[in-house]
Every structure is written in structure tokens, then in C-alpha cells.
Amino acid sequence: MTKLRLGRINSLNCLPVYYALEEGLLPLDGELVKGTPTFLNRLFWEGGLHCTPLSSIEYARHPGECLILPHLSIAADGRVASVLLFSRLPVTELENRTVCVTTASATSVALLRVLFEHYYHVEAEFRPASGGLAEMLKEGDAALLIGDEAMIAHHRVAREGIPLVVTDLGQAWKDFTGEKMVFAVWAVRREFAEAFPQETALLARTLLNSWQAGMESLPAVVNKAHRQTGLPPAMLNDYFRVIHYRFDESYRRGLLLYYDYAYKSGLIEERVKLNIWGE
CA 20 to 30 Å from 67, out of 61, 87, 120, 265? Predict the structure, then answer.
């Protein structure tokens, strides 16, 4: 078998899942490849990864090419704290305004489009942009940030009293639908899973065990996150309890509803079903 290549989003939201593997607390017979969600998505489809946390919307665009590993996702039941829209005006007043969106995420941008169309009933121009919050707000009236960058920006906005409206997309989705929001699933390439079922089963168990070990080592996880980002430990403690990692029926229901709205908004070509490995 070719050496396993496993994707790892280079944001705090993956740290509890990968902490035990990165610190040598659990063995991993393979290589961790770090990057943004969009980078890992692309590498996965190109065959450069066997498994990765895959943006939810990307699974819906290629459902026949991979299988979802059971038990784990990156999700929220309301507030997510790391997928944030910063705007000079309330969202409902952004009609015909320019909204700059991160190029690092596919799922969050699609979610923003869904919320604008079906929840807020606002038409805006969505413009892909790089750079930080200040640079994006020079180009538009609102900016969508994700991950560590969103959390650091939110901390600064709150600390300095910067007059911006901050909208948490996880909470907005919950307010709109009453459902949980799944931002990413762990996906394995179909040909790998079919050729190496025992290795796939071991990988699924390893990831689940690593997440459990990470949550049992939460003070150490928070410590590492603080060293990486400089964010206050209290904020990080809160974050690792806000982010959910399960993938039971309630999360699957929320994900399928997200796909329904993405289909209605023309963001995916067809409604999809969830192909779960081993089920």
C-alpha cells in the first residue's frame, strides 16, 4: 500500500482531532499534510490525499468519488465562533453592497449565499478576496473570514471597540433552520477505501480515538492553541466547547438540509445522499 497521506486543516478547529497524533500520543502510519480547506479539497480531488477533512459543499459536488467516514465532522449547534461576517451595516441593510469573501473556504461562502438568499432576502455582490479584515473592508462593506483569522479579528474588534456588526454564520443557520451546521466531513477516496478496507477501518478508529484523546487533554490543547495564535485561554476553552465533532443523525439531517438550500440556490447541480463508509 502507498503510504497514507492524511489532510489536516491548518486551523484550530482541527487541533483536538489531531493533537494526539501530532504529539505522538497515538501512532499514525502515514503523513499529515496541512493547508487551508480549499487547498486540501483540491489536493484530495487530484489524488494527492487519501483522506482529509473535506468541505461539506465539496462532497456534494463529487459524491461518487469518495466516502464519508462515520462518527466525525466539524460542526456547530448554533454559534461556531470561527465563521464570521464583519460588516459596517446590519446584514439586512447590505442590499446591492459588496461582500468580500475568503478564498480559504468553500462551505462557508456557500452558506453565506444561502443565508443571504433564503434567510435575509438580500441581494449582494460576493467578491473573492484575500488579505485580512482591514484590506477586505477597503474593497467592500462586509467581509467573511473563517478559522483562526476570524477569531483573531473578532478578538481585536471587541478589544478595540471597532464599530462593526459581527454575524456568526453558525448561529444564523440555527436561527433560520433550527438545525446543526456541518462545515466539513472526513472523506476517504472511494478507490482507496475499496482497495484497503482494513486500513480504512483502522484510520476511522484512529481519528475517533485521537479526537477523544484530544478532548481528554483539553488543557494541553488550549495551551498549544494559545502558543500558536496568542488568543486568550478563556476564549480558546470556550471555542473548543462550541465546536462539535460528532456526526450522528441530527448532524446528518442538518447537512442534508444545507444541501437542499445549496441546490435551490444553484450552488450544487443535484440533491445528494450521504455515502457513509461501512454503512
Answer: 265
